[in-house]
Structure formats: structure tokens, C-alpha cells
């Protein structure tokens, strides 16, 4: 089969075609990132009338700040919990939906709908459901002897934000897992069934290894999601409380910068957060991808 090549009549035309995307990337991503890096080396008042270059002082300050170190631990617990829960639940739902011969489209549509909900709306929804005064979930838990109070109990607050953030991401993961399952040749599964392999063994030895590229992709996406896109969920549910129990790094950047008006420290925290995400992505591609079977 011959491969067709696209030939442009003008040498400058390809650059004009990619110019809008380059402009968006430079204006909304590269330039703000550069501004954050530069601002992390400065100390300025809240009104921007006085600016002083302090070098790495902002970085040294946050690394010696117990509140920032606590946010690192909280972010680690939150990220691992959300990524694990959303991927596992999505995989189970995808396997269940893929096994249906009838009503598969209906179930798929119902499971995808939550992804259309904005993170802030999802946070408000779960805030009402888990509100210790008016929420349905605390009322049901009280019936089995557990007093739920995410306003005072840090563990309850962490469970709340993990559930809310995972619920929002399950639909996204479900779509990719379902697509991956439908792309697996059914002849392989039928051959294993003829050889006497049960459903569990077929999933472990055939289905899951063939889903490893999808799982790896979702692992990278979910880690980035927990680091950045969960800000609205935290802000709508716990606002980092109680006693900083849910104050993840991205929310601490907001509170220190926009509420505490410590712009230099906030910029340094955002740079460190960006470096952490880049490092985690590199580690995943460098080491985790070795176990991926393409």
C-alpha cells in the first residue's frame, strides 16, 4: 500500500496552520509558567508596590514550613487514594458493561454522564450528601452507630474529598477501559475458555495484560488530575480543613497566594508542584512503562 504525502504549495503555509496552537501554548502555558518561575525569586507586597529579589529564599522557607510538609503528605495520600479508587472502580464497571449483550449502550451512557458535571458542582453535590447536619449519608451512618463529621474529623474529610474526586474521574477512566476491552480479539478469550480457563484466569492472563497500555495512560492522566484538577472539589467541600487535613498542594498555593497574599511563596510552591508532576511523569515513563505490553 502506497503512502500519500501532503505537499504544500507554499513553504510558509504549514507554519501558518500551527500558529494558532503555538500562540495558545505560549500565551496560556509557557508565559504564565515563566512568570511563576520569575516571581518565585521575588518578595513583594500584596499591592505590588515593593519588590525585592531574594533568590532561593522562598524555596528554603517552604521546605522548612511544617504546613507545607504536611500538605506534601496529604497530597500523597489523596493522590494515591483517588488514582487507585477511580481506576479500579472504572475497570470493574467497564468489565461489567462489556459483558452485557443487551442494554450496553444504555449503561455506558449512564456511566459517562458524571464526567459532564463540573468539578465544583460535584463538590457541592457531595458536600450536601455528606453534610453532618442535613446530609443523607451521615443520617444512614448514624443508624449503624457511626457519627460522621467531616468538619471536625480529618479522616472523614479525607474520605469525603477522595470519594468526590474519584466519582468525577471514574467516567473518564471507564470510557478508555471499555474501548480497550472492545478492542481485544474475542478469539483469544474463546480459545482460553475452550482450554478450560475460568473467567478470573482469563482476565488475569489475557485481558489485563492487553489492557496495560490503557492502564498506563490512565495512571499518568489520573496522577496529573489529582495534582491540579481537584482544586474545585476541595474548595467546594472542605476548603482544606479541618486542621489542614485536606489541604493539598494546589489548594495551599491558592490560600497562600490569594488569601494570605504571600505571592513569592505561592509562586515557589507552584513551581515545586510543577516539578513534582514532571518528575512523577518521567518516573512513570522510565520505569512503569517497562511492564506495559504493546
Automatic annotation (TrEMBL):
Highest taxon of the lineage: Bacteria
- Gene3D superfamilies under this entry? MetI-like (1.10.3720.10)
Xref: InterPro entries = MetI-like, MetI-like_sf, UgpAE/MalFG_permease
User: Which keywords describe this protein according to UniProt?
Assistant: Cell inner membrane, Cell membrane, Membrane, Transmembrane, Transmembrane helix, Transport
Q: Where are the transmembrane segments?
A: 12-31, 72-98, 110-130, 157-179, 206-228, 267-288
UniProt domain ABC transmembrane type-1: residue ranges = 76-284
Q: Say if the entry is tagged with keyword Transferase.
A: no
Q: Show the CDD domains listed in the entry.
A: TM_PBP2
Q: Does the keyword Cell inner membrane apply?
A: yes
The record gives the membrane topology as:
Multi-pass membrane protein
Task: Report the subcellular localization.
Answer: Cell inner membrane; Cell membrane
Q: Which family does it belong to?
A: Belongs to the binding-protein-dependent transport system permease family.
Q: How does it assemble?
A: The complex is composed of two ATP-binding proteins (UgpC), two transmembrane proteins (UgpA and UgpE) and a solute-binding protein (UgpB).
What's the stated role of this polypeptide?
Part of the ABC transporter complex UgpBAEC involved in sn-glycerol-3-phosphate (G3P) import. Probably responsible for the translocation of the substrate across the membrane.
Its protein name is: sn-glycerol-3-phosphate transport system permease protein UgpA
- The source organism is Rhizobium aquaticum
Q: What high-level taxonomic lineage is stated for the organism?
A: Bacteria, Pseudomonadati, Pseudomonadota, Alphaproteobacteria, Hyphomicrobiales
Amino acid at each position: 500500500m502506497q503512502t500519500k504525502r501532503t505537499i504544500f504549495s507554499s513553504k510558509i503555509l504549514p507554519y501558518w496552520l500551527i500558529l494558532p496552537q503555538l500562540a495558545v501554548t505560549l500565551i496560556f502555558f509557557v508565559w504564565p509558567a515563566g512568570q511563576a518561575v520569575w516571581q518565585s525569586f521575588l518578595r513583594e507586597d500584596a499591592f505590588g508596590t515593593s519588590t525585592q529579589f531574594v533568590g532561593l529564599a522562598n524555596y528554603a522557607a517552604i521546605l522548612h514550613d511544617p504546613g507545607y510538609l504536611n500538605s506534601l503528605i496529604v497530597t500523597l495520600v489523596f493522590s494515591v487514594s483517588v488514582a487507585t479508587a477511580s481506576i479500579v472502580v472504572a475497570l470493574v464497571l467497564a468489565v461489567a458493561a462489556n459483558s452485557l449483550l443487551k442494554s450496553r449502550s444504555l449503561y455506558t451512557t449512564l456511566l459517562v454522564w458524571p464526567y459532564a458535571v463540573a468539578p465544583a458542582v460535584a463538590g457541592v453535590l457531595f458536600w450536601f450528601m455528606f453534610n453532618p447536619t442535613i446530609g443523607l449519608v451521615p443520617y444512614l451512618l448514624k443508624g449503624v452507630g457511626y457519627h460522621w463529621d467531616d468538619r471536625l474529623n480529618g479522616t472523614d474529610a479525607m474520605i469525603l474529598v477522595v470519594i468526590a474526586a474519584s466519582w468525577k474521574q471514574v467516567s473518564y477512566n471507564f470510557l478508555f477501559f471499555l474501548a480497550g476491552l472492545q478492542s481485544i480479539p474475542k478469539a483469544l478469550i474463546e480459545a482460553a475458555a475452550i482450554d478450560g480457563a475460568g473467567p478470573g484466569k482469563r482476565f488475569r492472563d489475557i485481558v489485563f495484560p492487553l489492557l496495560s497500555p490503557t492502564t498506563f495512560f490512565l495512571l499518568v492522566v489520573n496522577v496529573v488530575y489529582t495534582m491540579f484538577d481537584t482544586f474545585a472539589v476541595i474548595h467546594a467541600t472542605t476548603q482544606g480543613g479541618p486542621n489542614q487535613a485536606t489541604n493539598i498542594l494546589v489548594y495551599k498555593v491558592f490560600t497562600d497566594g490569594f488569601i494570605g497574599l504571600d505571592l513569592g511563596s505561592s509562586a515557589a510552591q507552584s513551581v515545586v508542584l510543577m516539578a513534582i508532576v514532571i518528575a512523577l511523569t518521567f518516573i512513570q515513563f522510565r520505569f512503569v512503562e517497562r511492564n506495559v505490553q504493546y
